[in-house]
Amino acid sequence: MQARVTMRKIREILRLTWDSQQSRKSVARSCNVGKTTITDTITRATAAGLSWPLPENLDDEALEELLYPPPPHLILRKTNLPDWKYIRNELVTHKNLTLTLLWLEYKERDPDGLQYSQYCLLYRQWRKKLDVSMRQDHRAGEKMFIDYCGQMLPIIDPMTWLTHEAPVFVAVLGASSYTYAEATWTATLPDWIGSHVRAFVYFRGVTEVLVPDNPRTGVTTPCYFDPVLNATYADLSEHYKTVIIPARPRKPKDKALAEAGVRVSQSFILAGLRHRIFFSLAEANEAIRERLEILNNRPFKKMPGSRKERYEEIDRPALIALPEHPYQFAEWKKERVGRDYHVEITDHFYSVSYKLIGEQVDIRYTTTTVEIFYKSRRVASHARSRVIGGKTTDPEHMPKAHREYTDWTPERFTSWSVEIGKSCAEVVQNIFSQRMHPEQALRLCKGLRWLSGRFGSDRMEAACARALYIKGVSYRSIKSILEHNLDKKPIESQQTPAPEPHENLRGGEFYE
């Protein structure tokens, strides 16, 4: 289809042809158009009853209507035009509603009304007249757009008088443009997640889709088709039963509402606070909240109502309800299980099943808990410990031999020795009292228990009695007694009998 020439050029064609009496070839060269265009323009002007000079009150719009009148079947009756505001509200409020269904309902009410193509064309033309931030037809409760302001908010430390530049987080609901903003100390992952949680509380619900930019804190690998999200950010979306669809890199139109929200936040909120000095983050956020309430209650320029009114009417009923408990910030880490079936988190070691030695696991840790996952299945959970270099071990994660080894405590060994006999109990008591380190004493007692299982309780009791008599209370001594069957000999046989009196024997008096 040939492009229509401008009204300015048409006036020039008519002037050169009618007033200057130039040839059509000369006029075509002067106006840089084809000769057929010259012929078509003169024919239309003559058919419209025009002559030179043109009437003074004939503006470009009226001239265009004379030269290019619409076909008779496209001439619209104003009484048949739909209520475009009603149509837009219906599209925004009802998730699955389409222009086709609205047109069918319109035709039922007015069979002589607009046809479908003209209906859609006029609606889109009307929609273009709205504000840029309101031009997209976002469904109620569908999307929340997220970004940071380019401008920082200065906060002064009252102790050092140094100025800290605080980033400003902005979230905007798609259907109503209802806005939330806050300042944070940093734009790192903990503050990024915390801002989301507080925004959900402010909105009193969650949208179906979160549309952030591609910050490193939230999106590990930006990609339009398959972006890789930070594990903590993905965990947040799972907790709130929403989905994260980042905007395309370097495509600001994908999040035009967030861009508009950022501009409004900078021009209305931050610019409005430019003369104030803040000495704490809480003080700054209190001032931001005051400006935010004014912004959300301020009437639209080209639409009825305000952000808050449209939020209460459209977005609020469609939001996903908040869960019973807010999301608790958690970090994720990949770790390979060591030979001691433990993994390390901030210089503390936590156990998993010994069967996972050498396997890579995912670790989710908060300020209070540590959870370990293998192939998306939780295999261990521990209370968070702050002991540097310490170990948190679940006995169920240990091999049977290790578990039996650690199950024996001084108290349990004492009870076992009493069951064996009085001598054995005395030997165990001597071991615990003489050894400097408890682990050394436990090893000796475990050795005695092994000897008891090998030789029996009765022989063990007899061997302990002999060891006490000869003052050889040690594992090696008792083992030697049992292996040489010395425990079977009476202790009296080991004593040297007193000599009988004899004339060759000199008593103690002799040496006095």
Provide structural commentary.
A hairpin with a 2-residue loop joins strand 11 and strand 12. The chain starts with 6 loop residues before the first helix and ends with a helix. The strands form five sheets. A five-stranded mixed sheet has the order 5-4-1-6-9, with helices on both faces. The chain is α+β, with helices and mostly antiparallel strands. The chain has helices at residues 7-19, 24-31, 35-47, 60-67, 84-93, 99-109, 116-127, 189-203, 231-239, 256-270, 281-297, 307-318, 400-407, 410-420, 422-434, 438-455, 457-469, 475-483, 508-511, and strands spanning 143-148, 153-156, 163-166, 168-173, 179-183, 209-211, 219-221, 228-229, 243-244, 331-336, 342-345, 348-351, 360-365, 369-374, 377-383, 391-392. 43% of the residues lie in helices and 14% in strands. The radius of gyration is 45 Å and the shape is rod-shaped. Residues 221-226 have low confidence and may be disordered. 25% of the residues are buried. It has five domains: 7-69; 78-129, no CATH class; 143-318, Ribonuclease H-like superfamily/Ribonuclease H (Nucleotidyltransferase, domain 5), CATH 3.30.420; 331-400, no CATH class; 408-494, no CATH class. The chain has 19 helices and 16 strands.
List the helices and strands and how they pair.
Layout: H1 7-19, H2 24-31, H3 35-47, H4 60-67, H5 84-93, H6 99-109, H7 116-127, E1 143-148, E2 153-156, E3 163-166, E4 168-173, E5 179-183, H8 189-203, E6 209-211, E7 219-221, E8 228-229, H9 231-239, E9 243-244, H10 256-270, H11 281-297, H12 307-318, E10 331-336, E11 342-345, E12 348-351, E13 360-365, E14 369-374, E15 377-383, E16 391-392, H13 400-407, H14 410-420, H15 422-434, H16 438-455, H17 457-469, H18 475-483, H19 508-511
Parallel strand pairs: 1-6, 6-9, 12-16
Antiparallel strand pairs: 1-4, 2-3, 4-5, 7-8, 10-13, 11-12, 13-14, 14-15
